[in-house]
Amino acid sequence: MQQRPICGTWVRMTVQTPPPSAALAETMLDMGRRARAASRELGLLTAQDRTRALKAIAAAIRAAGPEILRANEEDMAAARAKGLAPSMLDRLALDEKRLEGIAAGVETVADLPDPLGRELARWTRPNGLDIARISVPLGVIGIIYESRPNVTVDAGVLCLRSGNAAILRGGSESAKTSHALADAMRGALKSEEMPVDAIQLVATTDREAVGHMLGGLNGALDVIVPRGGRSLVERVQAEARVPVIGHLEGLCHTFVHAAADPKKAVDIVLNAKMRRTGVCGSTETLLMDVAAAPTLLPLIAKALTEAGCELRGDGRTRAILGDITPATEEDWATEYLDAILSIAVVDGLPGALAHLARWSSGHTDAIITEDAAAAEAFIANVDSAIVVHNASTQFADGGEFGFGAEIGIATGRIHARGPVGAEQLTTYKYAVRGTGQVRP
Fold first, then answer.
1. Where are the domains of the chain?
2. CA–CA distance, 419 with 37 (Å, rounded to integer)
3. Fewest CB atoms less than 10 Å from the CB: which of 81, 156, 166, 363?
4. In 3-state terms, what secondary structure has residue 318?
5. What angle do CA 340, 342, 346 make, to 5 degrees?
């Protein structure tokens, strides 16, 4: 163990040395026990207490900025040496602006309405029983994620805002950055006399630690949230012995309808694909209405290629654009997370809906049109967590929804769907008030 001061408080920093299997099992179980104890302590705090803790975390991240950025540089150097793709490097990278964005996001979460203790519904039965449904924390949440270090903060503070304890297991590529961020958060909790173990980061990158989390840590974990690629999410969904809030890949589509405004279409598609290619809300497939394709598709393609995007197209696309790479079935199923876009020319709204029914991952799909009826039909018939009209798919983000941050975009249908913020990390209980009733 090493110790260092953060915001005037000494916290422990664990050196990543993979422990033997038995030792790792006991370490993980101990983390679960401490998280459960911390969740009970969180239950005794007021909304004002949690707000104060979050404000302290934002200040601690700013104060530890130089150290966090140095740790990120070490992660980036190792990632470059491993030959990580540019899109993955972009996900991993922090600079002063991004770090300030993380701290500001914490303050936004701190200013959100308290999600706990809300009366969701209330009614009185004929026998006089007064029944209320009230929001409460989920308990202890395990978050397993890959290379984006901001998830360390997003997950930790959203759990804290919603009264949950968090056990975080990040990817090896962001290990040093995540440790620096977690140390800052835990230091802030200690300085505010809050339960430090409300936020814990798994010290090792040993994959066996994930297996222990999926087993539930002897009943300590209430929910698992995976955030990453298909292989991670599929493993979690297949092996978890606790409920999972699933996040599959962002195979997002933008459909340019025949009634699209040309300038909006060019601007929106360019942003949806190229603003940041490595985020899950990046459009991976462009669907072009056959009625607009001959005139509008060349304009969109020109803007994309000038921005450095590689285009792949079906037969009708290539008949209009000429010599571009043919798209295969694999392309329709691929989340590139890179400057690559597949294009299909479809037969109007029915053709777009048919393509989405076959290939959409249920994350985010958009239509660009000035035809209100077509837009409403698209919104009604596309079964995705987020459906967008005349805006970029890159708005698929908890911060853009006003949630301050997110743990991920849930693509399932149980409990939470779309951006998972503080409110989505709650469940409910029933308060039943009587006046002496007994059941006949």
1. 2-212, 252-397
2. 28
3. 81
4. helix
5. 160
H-run or E-run covering 115:
none
**C-alpha–C-alpha distance, residues 269 and 185, integer Å:** 38
145 contacts 153 by C-beta, under 8 angstroms: no
Written in H, E and C, the secondary structure of 219-239 is: CCCCEEEEECCHHHHHHHHHH
Beta strand residue intervals within 130-261, DSSP E: 130-137, 140-145, 165-169, 199-201, 223-227, 252-256
| Spatial contact of 366 and 392, defined as CB atoms under 8 Å apart | yes
State yes or no: pLDDT of 147 exceeds 80: no
Cα angle, residue 321 at apex, residues 263 and 88 outer, rounded to 5°: 75
213 and 144 Cβ atoms separated by less than 8 Å: yes
Please determine, for residue 5, whether its predicted confidence score (pLDDT) is greater than 80. Answer: no
Give the bridge partners for 123, in sequence order. Answer: 131
Give the CA diameter of the chain.
80
Q: How many CB atoms lie within 10 A of CB 405?
A: 26
Is the CA virtual torsion 380, 383, 385, 387 positive or negative? negative
Closest CA to 217 of 28, 359, 381, 39: 28
Query: Residue 440: pLDDT band by 50, 70, 90 thresholds?
Result: very high
* CA angle at 207 for the pair 169 and 217, rounded to the nearest 5°: 60
Q: What is the DSSP letter of 204?
A: -
Tell which CATH classification among 3.40.605.10, 3.40.47.10, 3.30.70.3340, 3.30.450.20 matches the domain 2-212.
3.40.605.10
pLDDT in tens, 165-204: 999 999 889 999 999 999 999 999 999 999 999 999 998 8
The tokens describing 101, both together, are 């964005």
pLDDT of 284 strictly over 60: yes
Residue ranges in 283-418 assigned as alpha helix (H): 293-306, 315-321, 329-332, 348-359, 372-381
Q: Which residue type, as a one-letter code, is found at position 133? A: R
Q: What is the pLDDT of residue 280?
A: 87
> Where is 364: in which H helix or E strand?
strand 364-368
| pLDDT the model gives residue 64 | 97
CA distance 244 to 226: 8
Give the whole-angstrom CA distance, residue 342 versus residue 230.
Answer: 19
pTM for the whole structure: 0.82
* Token pair recorded at residue 87: 């899109």
